[in-house]
Design a protein that fits this description.
The protein is of the alpha+beta class. Helices cover about 35% and strands about 25% of the residues. The strands form two sheets. Strands 1-2-3-5-6 form a five-stranded mixed β-sheet. The chain has one domain (about 30-140): PvuII Endonuclease, Chain A. The chain contains four helices and seven strands.
């Protein structure tokens, strides 16, 4: 994949959003839903050398070079949602310039433990704050993470 071209397209997307919001004050054109998810999956796959699975694959989005099933969560908000316990999770926050910040990169079990004893919400997704994910991420060692490519 051409990383530079991909980042440029993401930058163009956010520039278009900014222009639309300037043309229509009070209206929001924030990319969300499937678009943010797909952008995030592609950013992470490129940055970590993952093999993407078919879109909307149940339970995981990609395979790591060592064969781990990776659930990728991308957000522009303050939380991420999980439907099931992934083997491994990478959660990122996407920035308008086409870059991202890694919030969590580690075993899915550690995230899933945060939901123990809680009732499943009506939408079928547990929410966890990025702040909490960042705290969990600090507890991990390098061997718990999938390394980014240089």
């Amino acid at each position: 994949m051409n990383h530079q071209k991909f980042q440029q397209l993401v930058q163009q997307l956010y520039a278009t959003v900014h222009e639309l919001e300037a043309l229509f004050p009070g209206r929001h054109f924030t990319p969300d839903g499937h678009m943010v998810g797909s952008i995030g999956e592609c950013l992470v796959a490129d940055a970590y050398g993952l093999e993407l699975m078919t879109a909307s694959n149940k339970g995981f989005d990609a395979l790591s070079p060592c064969g781990k099933q990776v659930e990728i969560k991308a957000t522009q908000s303050r939380s991420a949602a999980f439907r099931s316990e992934p083997e491994h999770a990478i959660v990122i926050q996407i920035h308008p310039d086409g870059t991202f910040t890694e919030i969590y990169n580690g075993p899915g079990a550690l995230v899933w433990q945060q939901f123990q004893g809680k009732s499943l919400p009506s939408n079928g997704q547990f929410q966890i704050s990025l702040k909490r994910l960042a705290q969990l991420n600090q507890q991990l060692g390098d061997t718990d993470r999938i390394p980014q490519l240089t």
